[in-house]
Amino acid sequence: MNKQILTKHYDAFDRIDIWLGGHPGSDWRLHLPEGAKAILAATDVKYNPSWPYELTLYQPDVETLKAVRRLFGATIAINITYVEVARDFPTRWQADAKRLVLHYLRSATHRYGPKKVRKVKNGYYFGKPGRPERLVLYGDRKSKLATPAFGHPCAHTELRFQAVPAVRAAGIFSMDDLIEFDFDACWDRRVRLWAFRSRTDLGTALGAAGDQPRVTPKALRARAKRALKSSKYKAGNAFALQMLWRKHPDVTKALKRLTPKEWFRLARSKVHEPPRKWR
Questions:
Q1: Which of 115, 113, 156 lies closest to 133 in space, CA to CA?
Q2: d(CA 61, CA 39)
Q3: pLDDT by residue (tens digit) across 127-162?
Q4: What do you get for the CA distance between the two ends of the chain, in Å?
Q5: CB–CB of 103/96 below 8 Å?
Q6: Which ranges constitute the DSSP H helices of 191-257?
Q7: H/E element, 90
Q8: What is d(CA 193, CA 12) in angstroms, rounded to the nearest whole number?
Q9: Over residues 55-61, mean pLDDT
Q10: With 90 as the cut, is the pLDDT of residue 212 above it?
Q11: Which of 167, 181, 196, 194 is nearest to 87 (CA)?
């Protein structure tokens, strides 16, 4: 694993909530792999007596998901109500993970995301609690995912799908869909990664239509600098591209779309620089 630090990412589910149409039996836990983290509880869902129990899985691996599928069999109806799709970028030091999160924040847009990104404690949240789909970032903890990244400092990125319509919009209807889930397709469809071209291009994209011939390159660069430093586009003290993009959709004209591999190569070079140099 040490050779792979800062060279790749790891995908897994962080949490899954499943409503059950019946109790799986008093020995249900014996059917799960050793070490599987799961909680079974009675639900309190008004006007919905069809789902009396809820099973919550934390950081399940594929073997755990397969065991849960066997446990339910064809006799217990299920309804998957909440899913956290996680992607961790392991780093050597926690400080590197925090810088990687800041770089992600300034270079990613969430296609179905909100106008506002909020910093809560050490995390960044795209939208308010209760939103059907949210992007969440943090870099102050070690990875908990059931992957080779486990236990390492990491930049943690996570798509949260809350309530059945959002879960199904992500292509998840059954345990089979969880077991065969295409993480790359999910991230590629919902999150876009970018690199800034030049400050002149950014200043042009932020201006009114047709004003470029009357604006000098120096003034365009100054306009771009003001936007990058403006509190209107910050979550806490960090610039969030999401907020600038939602306010000025044409800003993408000044950006270069990156593949995940291209973004990661750029991120590796940025993670060792203080954010004040990311200009």
A1: 113
A2: 15
A3: 999 899 999 999 999 999 999 999 999 999 999 999
A4: 32
A5: no
A6: 199-206, 217-229, 241-247
A7: strand 78-90
A8: 20
A9: 98
A10: no
A11: 181
